[in-house]
Amino acid sequence: MGVDVQVTNLTKQFGKQLIWKGVTLTLPAGEISVMLGPSGTGKSVFLKALIGLIKPDEGSIVIEGTDIASCSEKELYEIRKLFGVLFQDGAMFGSMNLYDNVAFPLREHTKKSESEIRDIVMEKMDMVGLLGAEMKLPGEISGGMRKRAGLARALVLDPEILLIDEPDSGLDPVRTSFINQLFVDLNAQIDATFLIVTHDIHSVRVVPDQIGLLYHKHLAMYGPREMLLSSDEPVVRQFLNAQTIGPIGMSEEKDADQLAAEKDMDLPPLPPIPLQMEPSNGIPRRAQRPAGEWCRLNGVTPPPGSFTREAEHASGHQS
Asked: Which domain of life does the protein's organism represent (predicted)?
């Protein structure tokens, strides 16, 4: 079962360059959260801070009562055992076959016998659909297979928190859909806390329980999927619906003249909120909520046509 991650007033800068300031959120235990934002807003830096590779200048990151922003190296080493990480490119050792790549954390961090290691490695490779490919080298397989192998390696220590950096990078839409389904199925199976960094808007609209948006050196919004997909907050609405009208420009922010020119322009309507992706076995995840529940509980009228198969299909064509 996953654990929650409580982030409070997190601030980081490199020299005079402020990355983000005052980031506060809680990744709920066992839920799938997604973090997105324009390029260069510090999403990968945020992941590195969560696992203690980068120390924030201010704030705290509390996991099971330990603040990893200020704890000792020994405490950090223990907390890191709760994490699994899927790097953007898979980060496989090119000279090792997939079996040895996946077995590497077990050989480094446990005293298990080779027989026990084999059982675990084969179980995890089966979970990600790679049985039969264990003797292949990373250079002999597709990008999608390398990501799945990286995911198997991230799973071998049975993590309670899984950090995933741009899993759709370099994948075509079909493979992206397959890996999204794999994340949902794995969350249902292992009940870990997931945080996915992505730019893929379709994935953001159908996969997570929670969505966060980093923009202009702060956390613009973080909360339930339905809250952000029905939001009229300008930067959230613009980014999640891939619109040109709004504060985000080609580089970062639009200038005052551009914003003034858009002031009287009619915004396109919000698209329908699609159904959330479900586990392939049809059994709901622990964190899964009935479609439209957040909107009903908060008195929000969702866009027309929301929570239908047609909306799900339309969302797939939008990205």
From this structure: Bacteria
Domain with CATH 3.40.50.300 in the chain: 1-82+159-319
What is the model's pTM?
0.90
User: Residue 109 and residue 140: Cα distance in Å, rounded?
Assistant: 28
Q: Which residue has the tokens 């980068």?
A: 54
Domain at 1-82+159-319, CATH homologous superfamily: P-loop containing nucleotide triphosphate hydrolases (3.40.50.300)
Alpha helices (runs of H) in 67-172, residue ranges in sequence order? 73-80, 98-109, 114-127, 143-155
pLDDT of amino acid 319: 45
CA dihedral 15, 17, 19, 24 (to 10 degrees): 70
What is the Cα 243 distance to its own chain's centre?
Answer: 22
Q: Decide: residue 223, CB within 10 A, 0-12 exposed, 13-18 middle, 19+ buried.
A: middle
Write out pLDDT tens, residues 21-68.
999 999 999 999 999 988 788 898 999 999 999 999 999 999 999 999
Q: How far apart are CA 236 and CA 227, in angstroms?
A: 10
- What Rg value do the Cα atoms of the chain yield, rounded? 20
